[in-house]
Design brief:
With 578 residues, the chain is of the alpha/beta class. It has 20 helices and 17 strands. Helix 5 crosses helix 6 and helix 7 packs antiparallel against helix 15. The longest helix has 19 residues.
Length: 578
């Protein structure tokens, strides 16, 4: 089940939670440097991966409340155990990594299982799980759930090794991902898009296998207290976004191996009324949202720049010419697109917060990767002709450099663009540059050809069932989430689970959107509150329930108060439930 196991100690100027960076180091706008950019050490890569993982998820800016109102970033000494884990039938492994603090209490055995959010690398849930669990003496185990930052350079035939360094095919036997690619393929491949495993269909099994690795690691770390088993060790699964969806998939699995689940802003497709697949609403948003947002005033800034607005006007004209929306002027077309999205279940709050995803072209990046994953397509087989590569200034593809490759493990988000890898769209054409490619992606959801059926079957394989009867589950979601709207994800899941008599509890947080990490931007900080404090509070409630039978909270809509421009976050703003 596990291969290429490694072990390391983290004490003194190094630790489990931040590799010694602490709050001040994580706040630095400059990532930890490599002494030799062409050949960073495993220790340097780990530190930089933690820096990126923290900053990608949490708001650590002064005034944001982290370390004051909520959260912990003190030093936690301990040990790490890592490996590749492989599910039966999978083509590619997923990474698992267990952190065991020196304060682990073998008399009160506790493990948090934390799948990465998004498609992030192995430390992608550190701010969600480790910041709560490690100071309490719990072990934490992560999985990249078959995605992650193990990119593979098709030109150089090089990829990421077990310790994060770059290795070459034929020279190193521990590459995390070797793409199954045609001869003379060019560019970059990565696990989420090109493993041919449709990893999302198995996210629940990834979570359970990570829990099994945690028990295995504890047996090694504390042999005098072994064996560690599901029967004698508390297992809590916690995650946000894709990680939230993964722990809900774990919740449905048979057996009593799992003691509780906390899912934040989960990307989950359920059988509940109103549920929509991520691929459905992301392709819809990619096409319609740029135009619809022209109708909306006072959008959060950045990133809706003048250039993006000009492109949105072109998109409105394209949609009108295609008969998708009505109107003879940009203003009328924008209103039509806005009303169309409302009719499909989007809220004004979700559309407003979605400006971030529009501005960063996130909808298209998500749709391209997921189309490949759902259809189990390999390199050079994308049904809409997309690929990935390093790029020149004019966006033409080129070979990646050795310096770019060296930082993939620490800097990659799991879905390009980023870390020197860009998205190559073979259908780009004037006047609406990305429309043809997006139309093709949308056709994989709406169509009935072979490629569409293949993608649709992959999506259906990700549909969640009800959680196991009697398993306590808490779901936390921001009402203003513009990437994974609760109306399409958590709300239908919770309604179906509660109707089925399951022990599911739901907190809706007003004025919380999807990305705490962007609250460092002043306009977002003024408008929105972070979600992480409610995740920690939900874990507190679950712990009290498991320890002494305290009742889990009733469903609630938490009426937060945005702090406004230039003001620090306060306890009054958070309005934490009592």
């Amino acid at each position: 089940m596990f291969s290429h196991e490694q072990h390391s100690d983290h004490r003194g100027n190094d630790d489990l939670l931040s590799a010694g960076l602490g709050l001040a180091g994580l706040r630095s706008l400059v990532p930890p440097a490599f002494a030799e950019p062409l050949a960073p050490t495993a220790e340097e890569l780990r530190k930089r991966a933690l820096w990126n993982s923290w900053r990608g998820i949490a708001d650590l800016a002064p005034g944001g409340g982290y370390g004051d109102l909520f959260g912990f970033l003190g030093a936690v000494p301990g040990r790490e155990y890592s490996a590749y884990a492989t599910l039966p039938g999978a083509r590619q492994p997923h990474r698992v990594l267990a952190q065991i603090p020196d304060s682990f209490d073998a008399g009160k055995r506790c493990v948090l299982v934390a799948p990465a959010s998004g498609s992030r690398g192995i430390y992608g849930a550190v701010s969600v799980a480790a910041a709560w669990g490690l100071p309490k003496g719990c072990a934490v185990v992560y999985t990249d759930k078959g995605a992650g930052s193990d990119y593979y350079d098709l030109d150089a035939q090089q990829g990421v090794r077990a310790d994060g360094r770059i290795g070459a095919v034929g020279q190193h036997n521990d590459l995390a991902f070797i793409a199954d690619a045609p001869v003379n393929a060019r560019g970059v491949a990565f696990k989420h898009a090109h493993s041919k495993d449709n990893p999302e269909a198995d996210w629940g099994r990834h979570v359970k296998q990570a829990a099994q690795f945690a028990l295995h690691a504890l047996d090694q770390a504390l042999p005098q207290a072994a064996p560690f088993t599901f029967a004698n060790t508390r297992i809590i699964a916690v995650g946000i976004s894709n990680g939230g969806g993964a722990v809900l998939r774990a919740a449905e699995m048979d057996g009593d191996w799992l003691d509780a689940v906390v899912a934040g802003e989960p990307s989950v497709l359920s059988g509940g009324a109103g549920a929509r697949a991520l691929y459905d609403y992301s392709t819809e948003a990619a096409l319609l949202m740029p135009c619809a947002q022209l109708h909306m005033g006072n959008l959060p800034q950045p990133p809706l720049t003048a250039a993006l607005q000009a492109g949105a006007v072109v998109r409105c004209a394209t949609l009108a010419a295609e008969g998708v929306i009505a109107g003879a002027t940009p203003a009328a077309q924008a209103r039509s697109a806005y009303e169309l999205m409302l009719s499909k279940g989007w809220t004004d709050a979700a559309l407003r917060a979605g400006a971030l995803s529009t501005g960063f072209d996130l909808w298209r990046a998500v749709a391209v990767t997921y189309a490949s994953a759902y259809g189990r397509y390999g390199v050079d087989a994308h049904p809409c002709g997309f690929s990935f590569s390093a790029q020149n200034a004019d966006f033409s593809p080129r070979a990646a450099t050795a310096i770019e490759r060296a930082a993939w493990y620490s800097d990659g988000s799991g879905i390009p663009p980023g870390a020197g890898v860009g998205l190559i769209d073979s259908k780009v054409q004037l006047p609406d540059l990305t429309y043809a490619g997006l139309q093709c992606l949308r056709g994989l959801w709406e169509g009935n050809g072979e490629a569409a059926r293949r993608v649709q079957a992959g999506i259906e394989a990700t549909r969640a069932a009800l959680p196991r009867s009697g398993l306590p589950v808490m779901v936390v979601h921001g009402t203003d989430d513009g990437l994974i709207p609760p109306a399409f994800s958590s709300a239908p899941y919770v309604a179906a689970a509660q109707a089925g008599g399951r022990d599911v509890h739901y907190w809706k947080v007003r004025h919380a959107q999807h990305f705490d990490g962007f609250l460092g931007l002043p306009d977002y900080a003024a408008r929105y509150v972070p979600l992480l404090p409610y995740m920690y509070a939900a874990l507190d409630r679950v712990q009290a329930h498991l320890d002494n039978g305290a009742a889990l909270p009733a469903d609630a809509t938490i009426d937060t108060v945005p702090r406004g421009p230039g003001r620090p976050l306060t306890a009054e703003s958070l309005a934490m439930p009592r």
